[in-house]
Design a protein that fits this description.
Layout lengths: L2 H10 L13 E8 L6 H18 L2 E2 L2 E9 L4 H13 L5 E4 L2 H14 L3 E3 L14 E3 L4 H14 L4 E7 L2 H16 L3 E8 L7 H10 L3 E5 L5 H10 L8 E5 L19 E4 L8 H14 L5 H20 L5 H8 L3 E4 L2 E5 L6 E13 L2 E13 L2 H6 L1
Parallel strand pairs: 1-3, 1-4, 4-5, 5-6, 7-8, 7-9, 9-10, 10-11
Antiparallel strand pairs: 2-3, 11-14, 12-13, 13-14, 14-15
Length: 388
């Protein structure tokens, strides 16, 4: 059995045993994640990180047993909503662990009705946590990395820019955040191109970009589309045409880089995590993850790990009280050192505050990695920040 197959079996294992505790002693977590379908690598990384935390710290928090009930939304929001309803009504979960943006948005009203907190471990859309006062985020927002990337680009010579994003909420938010900062920095957005999320054909959009002759192309696509996009970029000779390709870090996820070619070398991105991040906490995390699963940890795994840490610390603060309002009050303003660096939960927006790193794809010991070369500390979501 391959390492990847072993990893998939371990992560999907149910029911994340909590022992023979009675219902009164057990806090149930309903995890609606994409374990199959187009976003399945993301769900598997999130659950791997969550499971690793529980392996390290035990399945007991503040004297309460923890049980995770994992449900697969198959990357489809309607299924995610139905599964969440079953978890809340039938299984009496005390907390939800949210996944991809479409599913998280459909589940949001359910958390309001049931007054059950949901830790968002995947969705990067700024609007997600706005949909429910019972949501808190340990993932990221698209605006954080996109705005930081725009600032770096304009400070490093970008004057004429084309943006290329997927036509869905995360892509549109990334486009808006990047554009706002780039224009303020003196750059011109000569075209804002949007491709379908499902089965996109990048060829006509890249050809149009080449015809416009920008100095910079900013892209935002799911990491599983990175390979085809970059391949087509190079096949058209755009890497030699004076067009600099930049992106948020989704394009070069650490778990995907081993499957990519040297065409990625030199690509500059902005993101909140790299497995080569230099800290003792991250080294321990990477070593433990690779030992447990045999593959690289990606940024989604860190969000799952931090979600369990947040819950753990909140329960300690409430002495094991898992009431929704009590837990939410405990989570707001909490801060700690994550494998990604110092992070905090904004007490006003319930969003994550974290460092963003400018990285370059380089070869280290013969393998591709995101190597950080600049740090922007304590970055807030630009949209929520603007609304205050």
């Amino acid at each position: 059995m391959s390492r990847l197959s072993i990893f998939m079996v371990l992560v999907a294992a149910a029911p994340f045993a909590a022992g023979e505790a009675s219902a009164q002693e057990t806090i149930k977590i309903g995890a609606v994640q994409s374990m199959t379908g187009s976003f399945n690598p993301i769900g598997k990384q999130v659950m791997a990180g969550a499971r690793l935390y529980l392996q390290e710290h035990g399945y007991t928090m503040a004297g309460k047993k923890i049980e995770i009930l994992l449900k697969d939304d198959t990357s489809l929001p309607d299924i995610g909503k139905r599964l969440a309803q079953e978890l809340i009504v039938n299984d009496k979960v005390a907390l939800m662990l949210g996944g991809i943006t479409p599913s998280a948005l459909t589940i949001a009203p359910l958390t309001v009705e049931a007054k059950i907190p949901m830790i968002v471990a995947v969705s990067g859309a700024s609007i997600t946590v706005e949909r429910s006062p019972y949501m808190v985020r340990t993932s990221f927002t698209n605006g954080q990395s996109s705005s930081v990337m725009a600032e770096w680009a304009t400070k490093n010579g970008a004057k004429k820019i084309v943006t290329l994003v997927n036509d869905w909420t995360p892509g549109l938010e990334a486009e808006k955040a990047f554009t706002n900062v780039a224009v303020k920095g003196g750059a011109e957005i000569v075209a804002a191109l949007r491709v379908p999320l499902a089965n996109p054909d990048f060829a006509p959009f890249l050809q149009r970009t080449r015809d416009l002759k920008p100095d910079t192309l900013f892209v935002f696509v799911p990491n599983q589309q990175a390979g085809p996009l970059v391949t087509q970029f190079i096949e058209r000779g755009m890497d030699k045409s004076g067009i600099r390709l930049i992106s948020s870090g989704d394009l070069t996820s650490d778990d995907d880089l081993p499957n990519m070619t040297d065409a990625m070398l030199g690509l500059v991105t902005a993101h909140h995590y790299s497995m080569l991040h230099k800290s003792a906490v991250n080294k321990a995390y990477v070593d433990a993850f690779r030992k447990a699963y045999g593959i690289r940890p990606a940024f989604h795994s860190v969000a799952g790990y931090d979600a369990m840490h947040l819950l753990h610390q909140a329960l300690e603060k409430t002495s094991g009280n898992a009431d929704g309002d009590t837990l939410m009050a405990a989570m707001k303003g909490m801060s700690w050192e994550s494998p990604r660096g110092q992070i905090a939960i904004d007490p006003e927006t319930r969003d994550i505050i974290q460092n963003e790193y400018i990285r370059r794809v380089e070869k280290v010991n013969g393998e591709l990695y995101n190597v950080e070369f600049a740090t922007i500390e304590a970055v807030k979501d630009p949209f929520h920040g603007a609304k205050k």
